[in-house]
């Protein structure tokens, strides 16, 4: 009996040590729809038609890009929701609502000037954008098409239909030479970003819609509607998964793929796991709304956003 009690107390202590609370908050001017971390700068897209840049070292906002308002179907002026953003050196790219038939606008901001790259006239339902290099961006379309777009000449380099399933998300490797695309089927396609060629197909771990993916040094993580947090090793194309208790809306890998984060339960907690052993390292408690993005700055520091105007800052103890 004494042994059982001691074991219970030890287990409770270990569990208590794994619970992490936010170390800070970043208040934005609108509900956060997307964010990326570039050179210690958080680039944030909001539903108020605004891109904000936050210096994580100086702990202050250093730039804002405000888009003009659009008209809804009633003719009323509303903010152009910015739902995908990226940064490459001193260039910014934004995807926003057009207010016309579900089609999107794409903008380039450089030298304090914002110019249109795509408008509703092109009739594209684009969900995500990321820079490949200084002159090209990769687009993920609702119909699970990948487009490489030349931002200088404002034209498509290629367009590839990856499957008939609806697109969910894509993530780039560190060199931006490969991208993993996720869709509602649970199958992941890895493509060459410069040619659009499918290099590998990852499957078997998710059997339903994959909401989010991440891609670091040959490892891929996938957040599934089937309550599975999947992990794949690109070289072998083999994978495994961690079972969750609720729909998994977000995931992230640490820079060297030593740790993976999943939103694993209906309380919007973030669970941190060791990638190799799949053992839980910590649970991050404090998120108030449904998670949409998790970012590792390093193995111990993270940022997370959800469907509200507050980005949470986290630091793991070990």
How much of the sequence lies in strands comes to over 45%
Rg on CA atoms, Å: 20 Å
Per CATH, the superfamily is YVTN repeat-like/Quinoprotein amine dehydrogenase
Mean pLDDT figure? 93
Classify the secondary structure makeup into a structural class.
Answer: mainly beta
- Low-confidence segments: 1-17
CATH topology: Methylamine Dehydrogenase, Chain H
CATH class: Mainly Beta
| CATH architecture designation | 7 Propeller
Number of strands: 31
Distance between the termini: 32 Å
The major beta sheet can be summarized as:
5 strands, mixed
Q: Shape, please?
A: globular
How many discrete structural domains? Answer: 1
What does this structure look like?
With 318 residues, this protein is mainly β. The protein has one domain (17-315): Methylamine Dehydrogenase, Chain H (7 Propeller), CATH 2.130.10.10. It is 5% helix and 54% strand. It has 1 helix and 31 strands. It has one helix at residues 2-18; strands at 19-20, 24-27, 32-38, 41-46, 50-55, 60-66, 70-71, 77-78, 82-88, 91-97, 104-110, 113-118, 126-133, 136-141, 145-150, 155-161, 167-172, 178-183, 188-192, 198-202, 210-216, 219-224, 228-233, 238-243, 251-253, 259-263, 270-274, 280-284, 291-296, 301-306, 310-315. It has a 5-stranded mixed sheet with strand order 1-28-27-26-25. It is globular, with a radius of gyration of 20 Å.
